[in-house]
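hi support,

uploading two proteins for the ticket. first:
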Amino acid sequence: MLCEKCQQREAGMHLSDSTTLEQAGGGSVEEFVHHFCHQCGAEHVRTLLHPPVEAGTRRETVRVMSLSQEHTILRLVRTEGEAVPEDWSLLTARLGSELPVGEELQMTFTESHLEWLQGKRETP
């Protein structure tokens, strides 16, 4: 069987997926199996884990520095070229879940969404 994406290499990765379809009288689950070569399969998995950044958004890696009922402090993880640390104080209630102190994670957001998380505006 050939890879469904490139149609050139032998499919060696078989990834299952399912979608719930809403219908009158109830929903049904539709199952899919995708067949990829290892190269296209790895690219597909990378895209699922790290979706592309859309225009107007940015992605930053942050470390959770501290957590209180009111504020969560995140520090941008910087490279040698951007060595000056920058801390963000976000409203804990607007994050939607408690983040573990010390954890590094990636955030994708628009500037207006960041301002909302910081409490600088009422809507994202």
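and the second one:
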Amino acid sequence: MATNRFGRICTVAAALLMLGGCDNLLDVSDPQNFTDEDLDLALDAVANGVEGELHGSYDNLVYFSALLGDEWQHTGTWSGWDDVDHGRVRYAQSPVDGTFDGLLRARFASQDAQERFTRVLEAGASSSPLMAQVMTVEGLVDLILAEHFCEAPQGPGGAAISDAQMYQQAITKLQAAQVVATASGPRRGIDYALVAQAGIARAHLMLGNFSQAATAAQAVPTSFTYEAIYTSSAVRNDIVFLATVGFNNAGGMREKWWSAVDVPGRKLRDPWTSELDGRVGIRNDAGVLGVDGITPYFSQWKYTGLASRIEIVGGREMRLIEAEVHWRNNAFPQAMAVLNALRADAGLSSVANPGTSAGVFDILLSERFAENFMEGHRTNDLYRFNLFGPMVAAGAFNSPTTGGTSIAQRAIKFPLSDNEASANPNIADDVAQRCSPTLP
């Protein structure tokens, strides 16, 4: 499969361009001898480059997640995408290895930057917005690894730990980042203390720490968003480039959604009111097929240009966390109030409280799909609610009670990269010891 490898190889340098930090980075006497001292004089660019490493991997992770879950299906000719689409993801055979490796590079870049900032800034590092930025990135990488991969190395050269352990590690790192971010204040208009707060809330939810999740989520305003940034050239949004009408039609909406698409409106119809849901953009042009020349092409239409941004954490997700905790506590009126507030803000009518756990859950899951559409969270929802088999096999809109036959041995998370195991002496490069194709 050919992807935007050229841009990925140069992610750091390109990220500096998109984050506005490279004005002085290349202003050195001999660009062939770019030294540590030069980097120490360009700390701003170093911090931006760390963040760019994360952003450069995130779009790839989102499209692989969409293929593994029930958002997308493969409509092209790439064997790797077809394997993910059908859940044929095994350790040492995973097309997601490059994305995993990119996330580890982002984590290492963050750790290296922290060492540099501590050396150069000395005591000032503990209140530096640059340090807050890169520490937050490190915590986010661990959070993202936990959400999508069944295991990952604890650190450079470290042993593999489970997704649950990685969530806990993410909380620890994000809390440390938050201390520095609170002392330093926002940087480039981004409040990294809030970014860390949102990440902590998500990690607590995934660990089953529901009270802590709700408390953390409440501190994040609904309007808050932290996004991965792309450009139309160096570090483009590969969701658009590889699988969006007008570019390359290699991945389209899974067939289960086709009947709910309003073709003229280029949106999905809300399952509860049949109103057009502006949060779920889907485009189906007459006669347009996937790259395979067979499959009718229903393109995602949330991201329409190569520079379209992707939310990594945000305030609306925090409201969904609060609603989920209410649901788990059988506080159905409170859960529905939160969900209906989000719907109203999206221009949709309210939905009556079903008054049952199953009924509120269906609405919650539907709202999570709409709010987090093509942001990399749907597959993890199917995993954590044990919906993988029925949702993908039967095409039930949101409920496992709609019927369907489970798919045996379908991957439900991605394995760690065999590149990491091959290079890391503390991880066994052994299929029998790795966690694919499924988790217990």
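thanks. also noticed: The radius of gyration is 21 Å.
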